[in-house]
Amino acid sequence: MENPARPHANTCDRFTTQAMVGESPPMQAIQAYIRKVALTDSHVLITGETGTGKELVAEQIHQHSPRARQPFICLNCAAIPDSLFESELFGYERGAFTGASALTRGAFERADGGTLFLDEIGDMSPFAQAKILRTVEDKAIYRLGGQRRIPLNIRVIAATNQDLERLVTAGQFRPDLYFRLHVASIHLPPLRDRKSDLWPLCQHYIRALNWRWEREVEGFTPDVFEALLRYEWPGNVRELKNLIEAIFITVVSRTIGFTDLPEAFGRRLRDVEKRSLTERDRLLAALVSTQWNKSQAAQQLRWSRMTLYRKLQHYHLTVPREHQVQRSSYNQGQDSGDVPSSVRMPRGRAMRADEPTNLLAWELPEALWQRMAALIPARKSPIGHPQTVDLRRVTEGILYVLRTGIPWHACPREHFGPSSTLYYYFTRWLNTGVWEQLWAEALTIADDLQGREWTWRRRHRSNHMN
Known about the structure:
The protein has 20 helices and twelve strands. The protein is α/β, with parallel strands linked by helices. The protein has three domains: 5-189, Rossmann fold (3-Layer(aba) Sandwich); 193-276, Helicase, Ruva Protein, domain 3; 342-454, no CATH class. The chain has a six-stranded mixed sheet. It has a two-stranded antiparallel sheet with strand order 5-6. A hairpin with an 8-residue loop joins strand 5 (140-141) and strand 6 (150-151). The longest helix is centred in the middle third of the chain and has 16 residues, at 198-213. The N and C termini lie far apart (88 Å).
């Protein structure tokens, strides 16, 4: 078991440098309040979710107070069993119990003259709460096995990620202890409520790790940072800090892209992208990815079949008449669905067979290419090795099928590769939520190039007639 009580180190790691980072109005107000509270000797109660920096706030109060040169002792209340609580907090005399071979001072006595930080105070048992209350009120302790009263000059700062008022109402936390500690109160907002601080936090930890590991990482690419802004950060600032440190272990470039993110975190980002779609978009994506098989779509969405039918009626979605089952040489008899008419280009805009196939090689944003490469891993060969795939060529082939409305198996293999590869990546688009954005951008660029297409057609026809 980790030592629940630890002194504050005099030397500070640059990665955990003692500074409050945040430019949002809530953090500016908290920093101003910390400076005011530090000048007093009142007890402080710090609340907030796990990972919001409660211990850092306690350290800031101590460092700005007249007690800054005295000890700062941290005590993890959740890590101490009742059988060891008194000995950890109050210490013991020699011979107080079997194994007590020397006088040992407890956390309260070691913090004399300074600050005692009681972390996770909401997890203390009623027995521990009673012991803490008596000490806070009397400002004195008795060591186990001792008879001498030891006066204390300490300041107590408590922290919890629980709602103490609710615990008091439920009879799980002593109201007298709550009101004794709840003199000055500081609530730390979660990171998802102050995302304007995400950029300075990232820069702070990147600079610290560059100094620590002698690196020259500049930061995240714009598309990755946009994804971080959409993420909810359930682990708050601690999760961000650990993420950046995990990235630094493997990153080789000066900028951090999607491929540099840990695999588990990348999956969570993709889940966020899926949830960001509207319910209608998720339903449509599931239907297309399952070739309009309602049972499979319901399973993918984790809905019942009746729920799926109600949603189809609510959003006025019907199975397209043009949706026909195609056969491909790759699946050797397994069904492969065509594209629904809702995502096809209108027949009037379909390309002629004599037009160049590379007309759809649109200049899509580089950031979007990188995002696709990160979200869509290369498929594996039968022996388990990744296959080398020209992602741009495959993408152009998929867009060619969607614009022309031809069956997958009829897509020119010599230009875009096997139709099975195209359909594989198309389904991966749907599953990762990339397809919606890509298709919207592709159509926008296509409209801009419409005049260029008609210019090419007139020139091609003129040359053919001559």
